Amino acid sequence: MQCEIITIGDEILIGQIVDTNSAWMAKELNLAGIMVKQITSVSDNKQHIMNALNEARTRVDVILITGGLGPTKDDITKATLCEYFDTTLVRNWDVYREIKKVFDARELPYTALNQKQSDVPVNCQVIMNSKGTAQGMWFEEYGKVFVSMPGVPYEMIAMMNVFVIPKLKEKFETPFILHQTILIQGIGESFLADKIAKWEDALPKGFKLAYLPATGNLRLRLSATGEDKGLLEKQMKGLITKLTPIISDYIYGYDDETMEQIVGRLLMEKGRKLCTAESCTGGYIAHRITSVPGSSVYFEGSLITYSYEIKEHILGVKKETLEKYGAVSEQVVLAMAKAAREQFKTDYSIAASGIAGPSGGTNEKPVGTVWIAISTPHKTFAKRYQFGNDRERNIIRTSVTALNLLRMELLKD
Fold this sequence. Notes:
Low-confidence stretches: none
Shape: elongated
Distance between the termini: 50 Å
Structural class: alpha/beta
CATH class of the largest domain: Alpha Beta
Number of helices: 16
Strand content: 25-35%
């Protein structure tokens, strides 16, 4: 069973808001065994909406629509659906009373404009909105299912979870879909593909592998579709077991876990403390670490030592070291890591210094040159990396690589 998502609203097409609804819906539908064949965004224009509906019903069994259900004149979805299904609006008194309760509770007047929210097409099944006043609508027309929901994300999510997905699963026979995502760092997509080619070629029927590259890391998503959940889970486990030793040096986690969450968990398990000394990343490593709830248990703080003077006067990097080797060097980043660990009195420290770009590079040290150091209770070491010439990507790649270096040291401890 396939479906299409149609989002309605000029605000999406002009870039005023980002369509997060479709991404959330696609993920949840997939988990329910419902395949999303297409996602379409249309303007607040009657003919545009009708054309999208006509096209969608030639492709799929279910059309899910979000947006355009407000009480104002620019919200035209309800009227357009009435015309499309050749029906009329009628006041639903159950909806009327529920909306009135909302306004009464807030001590607000229940105006005629707000009361119009209780007018629904005759031929629809109303989907009650527990989070707002725009009701959802379920239509079964032309041998297809059409569902219209509000564009407000938390209102749509409530309807999908409580009503839409359960009803779709009840109406249609859906297969079981299983996903396992392997998180990879330290190897490029093409190199990884070569490394696991034989394993990938031997995947059984119903299994599919997708490569999902991102800045600084890579995700491998193994998907399976079938009717027997137990069999799929057993096969999936066996395939991951065979894959792991082939690329064990590059796997850092699974599914939705982030590098900073994994590092934080290891620090907590071992009762260790961490600090950072950053130059080219400008505090981004510390930002990622502190984005994890509870990070105050293991993270002491960070020093952003951008200039030569601050590296010298705050971290104590020797002036002659800076002048002889330059800020982007093994000698300087090692000194930064050692000094930070001593000043913060932590078990571990991360230091990074590089040329993020787009300017500042030389023949000896081109843009993208980065030195990362890790200081532990047993040693301090540094590694040189050559990233690209995009500033933002270089900062992200540096942060992910630095955290992964720390992760590998924590696993040895």
